[in-house]
Structures are given as C-alpha cells and as structure tokens.
Design goal:
Helices cover 40% and strands 16% of the residues. By secondary structure, it is of the alpha/beta class. The strands form three sheets. It has a seven-stranded mixed beta sheet, sandwiched between helices.
Length: 422
C-alpha cells in the first residue's frame, strides 16, 4: 500500500481524538456579530480588539487609495512593489513605537519565520519561551541555531541558560502577550538579562500593539524602552491584522538591524509586497489608535475585561464553583477558560453556539494536552450586554456539567499529542 494512503488513517486518528478542525464561512455583520455558515452569531473569537476591521474610516481610506494605487503591488518591495504608501506607513509605524526604523511585511507568520534565520544561524544560540507562537518556533528551527527552550516566563531558568552558553551570538525570542494564555511577558526582566549576557531580544507584540502601553504603543513603550531610552539590542515585531484591523506586520528597532533584515530576510525579498491600499487602511487605523478615539476604545475594552473576569471569578456563580473549569490569570483581551478534555471543550463550544454565541475551543497541539479551553476574545465592538449574555450562557451550561471532585485532574482525551514547541 502506498504511504499516501496513510493520510486517511491519520485524519481518522485526529477525528477520534476530537482534534479535527473545520473552517467556517463567515460574513461580518454589525458590532461583534458574524453570519457563520448562514447563522447569525455573537462572536467572541476575533482578534479585532479595537473593533477597527469594519470601521468606515478604514474603508474610506481604501476607496481613496484605489484610483491612485490600484489593487495589487505587482512585485517584491525590492523590485517595484515598495509604494509611497508603504514607505509612509513604515515611517509612521517607527514613530508610533518610538524606534528608529520600521520594516513593513505582508504577513505576520512569514515575518517571524524569516527574520529569525536572518539573525542567527548554525553555531549561534537561540533561547525560546516554551509557549512561543508557532511562527517563532518555525523561525527558530529554520535558523539552524542551537535552540534552548526555557519554562514559560521562567527568567531564572533563562538566566542560567544564557550564563552557560559559550556562543558568541545569542538571540532571545518571546511573545509579548501569549496568544492562548493572555499573559504579558516581563519585558524589563528580559531586557536586563539580554544586557547582562550580550544577547539580542526579539519581542512579538502581535496581541499588544494598539491595546497596551501609552496610546496603545505596545509593550516596549509600557516598559519605557522607546524614544531616547530605546535599546540597541531589542527588535520589536507586531502584527497589523489584530488591533489595527487590517493585515500584515512590521519589525522596528535600530536602523542597522532593520537594514540587515531588509537585505537578508527571504520572505521580504522574494514575496510580492503588500498592496498600497492596505497600507493606506493601516495608516488610517493607526491615526485612530493613537488619538482620542483609540483611547475611548481601550477604556471600553478594559471595562469589558473587568466585567467578564468578575463574572467568572471565585464565588461568582455556584455552577462555576462546582465545575472543573478554570479561568486563567489574564488581564488582556484574551480570556482563556480551561475546560480540560478535547471533547468536553467542543461540547461547551457547541452548547454556546446553540445559544447564538461563537467562542472557539482551542485544543492540542495549540495548547498542552488536558488543557483544552475556550479562548474568549473581547473587542471594543462588544457591549456590556454582550458580555452579560456570554456570562449567563456559561452559567447555564456549567449547571449541566457534573461536579468535579476535590483534587480532580483535568481530563485528557488526546490520542496523539506532539507539543508545538522547540
């Protein structure tokens, strides 16, 4: 039998372990609502944290760009794809994050997967947080550097690894806001270690830029490492398809390092540049984020986060107390509720959908086995009434779940689990 026939068996095993995923066809509606496979749902699944994806200001920017730039860029930015709009956007992004220079990429995953191999290679040392995003992990593997993984947020462990490394070139890579847990890295602590051990720090602030820090300028600004205090050993990466509501990503930092990335990053050199109309939409979104409207949206979002956490906190509802569900300690728009087993998480997701709510169940290998969860993503597009509706639905569903015994471990039903870590 050909080895190609094994793929059907592999798909069957994924299905048996409740690990088979499916796409859904969606159409945006007003507010935080989506039409999903023909049904209207209140969505808590989008990374559109400030509700800009459907904002008319961004749509107007695209319409104005069309007669000037057309639809496509036509070439790599190293040939003829680097438009005036893209150039203006890079300058404005660098100014927004208080760093000397920025480089605009067409996609976030491709950015990290390619800039890491441009920074270190065989014979160098790379240090990676255990819960880093897959794009950082893939970039680390492509680099051929010696990868050393440290426990999530364990700066003491990282310090020991850095001290013991004989490598001349050392790179530390970390998410800034961890996408499945919602916690924020200790930026100042990481930077101090890199200073002490002559290492370069690459931070992925995909879920923080636009939301965290003064005026939403990100985790580096929150840590005071921008402007005149900008560090020569920090590269800052952020995506533009989350709080900014469009697509793409950028890397900012010292001018020399950014120039090196421009010259050597394969996904920049060999890919068609992002269309200028997207750059114009991002520029419009950036002005909103940095202005009074952005501040209003962030205040509203913070109020929703507080409301949800109080509603799911200790003693909030008897049914939650009896269940084995566990709200993780996140103060960001990402609010994970750990259910445990894969099928259990899917069942809760299905029960929410029956009530008109879309909250995704996240399962291995995205998260460790036994920690399948609901990833509740809040947005400034939500209302307080939306959050109340979600809370009441969770109370109702929790009332139908058998009570967990004291000390009961979270169940796991993953037939096969290979951690997506370095």
């Amino acid at each position: 039998m050909s080895w190609l026939n094994e793929f059907e068996e592999r798909l069957d095993r994924l299905d048996q372990g409740a690990l088979l995923r499916r796409r859904r066809v969606v159409q945006p509606l007003a507010g935080a609502r989506l039409q999903v496979d023909g049904c209207e749902l209140l969505a808590f699944c989008s990374n559109d944290y400030l509700g800009l994806a459907q904002d008319p200001v961004l749509a107007d920017a695209v319409r104005a760009a069309l007669p000037v730039f057309g639809v496509g860029s036509g070439a790599s930015p190293m040939v003829s794809g680097h438009s005036a709009a893209n150039a203006d956007l890079e300058a404005e992004l660098a100014d927004a994050v208080g760093l000397p220079r920025a480089l605009y990429f067409y996609a976030g995953f491709a950015t990290n997967a390619s800039i890491v191999p441009a920074l270190v290679t065989e014979g160098d040392a790379l240090f990676s947080d255990a819960l880093n995003h897959a794009c950082l992990i893939d970039g680390a593997r492509l680099s051929r550097a010696r990868i050393q993984r440290y426990g999530h947020g364990r700066l003491d462990e990282l310090a020991s690894l850095l001290a013991a490394s004989p490598a001349r070139r050392k790179l530390v890579i970390s998410d800034a806001v961890f996408s499945m847990d919602g916690d924020v890295v200790d930026v100042a602590g990481l930077h101090a270690l890199c200073e002490r051990h002559d290492a370069l720090l690459l931070l992925d602030d995909a879920h923080g830029f636009g939301v965290l820090g003064p005026q939403g300028r990100g985790v580096l600004a929150a840590a005071g490492l921008t402007g005149s205090a900008a560090s020569p050993r920090v590269l800052y990466m952020a995506t533009l398809g989350k709080a900014l509501g469009v697509s793409g990503a950028f890397v900012a930092g010292p001018a020399t390092l950014v120039e090196w990335l421009l010259q050597t990053t394969r996904s920049y050199t060999y890919a068609t540049a992002a269309p200028a109309l997207l750059a114009e939409a991002i520029r419009a979104g950036l002005r909103l984020v940095l202005g009074p409207d952005g501040e209003r949206r962030r205040r509203h979002l913070q109020g929703l986060i507080t409301q949800l956490r109080r509603g799911l906190g200790p003693g909030a509802h008897a049914a939650l107390t009896r269940s084995a569900w566990r709200l993780m300690p996140s103060e960001t728009a990402i609010q994970p509720l750990v259910i445990g087993g894969n099928q259990a998480a899917l069942s809760v997701m299905a029960a929410l959908r029956e009530r008109g709510l879309w909250v995704p169940a996240i399962r291995p290998p995205t998260v460790p086995a036994g920690t399948a969860r609901l990833r509740m993503a809040l947005s400034a597009a939500h209302t307080r009434e939306d959050v109340d509706r979600l809370l009441q639905a969770l109370y109702d569903i929790a009332s139908t779940v058998p009570a967990a015994s004291d000390g009961e471990a979270a169940p796991t039903d993953a037939a096969e689990f290979r951690p997506a870590a370095t």
